[in-house]
Amino acid sequence: GILIPPSVALVIYAIIVEASIIQMFQAAVLPGLMAVAFFIAVILISVRLNPALAPAVETFTAPEKRQALRRLGPVIVIFGSIILGLGFGLFTPTPAAGVGVFLIMAYGLYIYARRGEGLNLQGLKASLLDTAVTAGMIYFIIFGAEVLKSFFTRSGLPAALATWAGASGLDPWTILILMLIILIFLGCFMESLAMILVIVPFFWPTLVDLNGGDMATVATAAYGMDSESLKIWFGILALIVIELGLITPPVGLNVFIINMLSKDVPMVETFRGVVPFIGAEIIRIGLLLLVPGLVLFLPGLLAGG
């Protein structure tokens, strides 16, 4: 969810640490596919151990399947056009948004002209107004993030944290893991964007100093990568653990939301149901920590590195 382009959380993180938004989107692909594979494995294993967990299989006729695929076709074309255009450098994120809006508007107006349903001019006007409101909110969020980042920099808090970390005797990897644990804990109570806005400006300068500074090279860096790669790698890790915090007992805000939608399911059962997925997420985080190339491979490949 939080990693899938066009993720607002990824965009906000990239703005805060001044990373490439396109490379952040590219870096999210393999970890996202890993999540899909791990979650499928959890479901298959759970159903194999307890077949009663799976709902009854609903069957569809061949014409129904073809009709569903036809309806899904425009969505695949629009989404694929945006992602492929970003991935191959045909346009940057801002024009990509314009391309997506144009394709959706064109398809909606085409359906209305052909069938008399879908996006009419009144609906288009309402959509534009809603978009303006949402865009205004996002701009205020970005403005607040920049102000907060400037405040942290001028206050010297990140530098003080880096000094403490260096004097603590803990190695950089231990401090990174502690940061991720803190993000998981805070993720139980805070919304994801709030976490990114408040915590990332505090943690990021510390990581840069621990890694050897902005001019660190692969040979000299504590984490074995330069600052640009560290931005991408830490960003993916941070967003994953923040998302993990949202389903972690005993609070897990997302779990409470799910339970509100399924009021006939006891809260204990809901928390018990997410435990296997938490285990899968921990394995994924461990793999991304041990093998940073899982995050950095695709951005490097598409950049020609």
List the helices and strands and how they pair.
Blueprint: H1 8-17, H2 21-27, H3 29-49, H4 62-87, H5 93-115, H6 121-155, H7 157-167, H8 172-187, H9 192-211, H10 227-245, H11 253-261, H12 267-290, H13 293-302
Structure, described:
- With 305 residues, this protein is mostly helical.
- The chain has a domain at 8-52 and 149-302.
- Helices cover 76% and strands 0% of the residues.
- It has helices at residues 8-17, 21-27, 29-49, 62-87, 93-115, 121-155, 157-167, 172-187, 192-211, 227-245, 253-261, 267-290, 293-302.
Characteristics of this structure?
single chain, 305 residues, mainly alpha
Outline of this structure?
The protein is mainly α and 305 residues long. The protein has helices at 8-17, 21-27, 29-49, 62-87, 93-115, 121-155, 157-167, 172-187, 192-211, 227-245, 253-261, 267-290, 293-302.
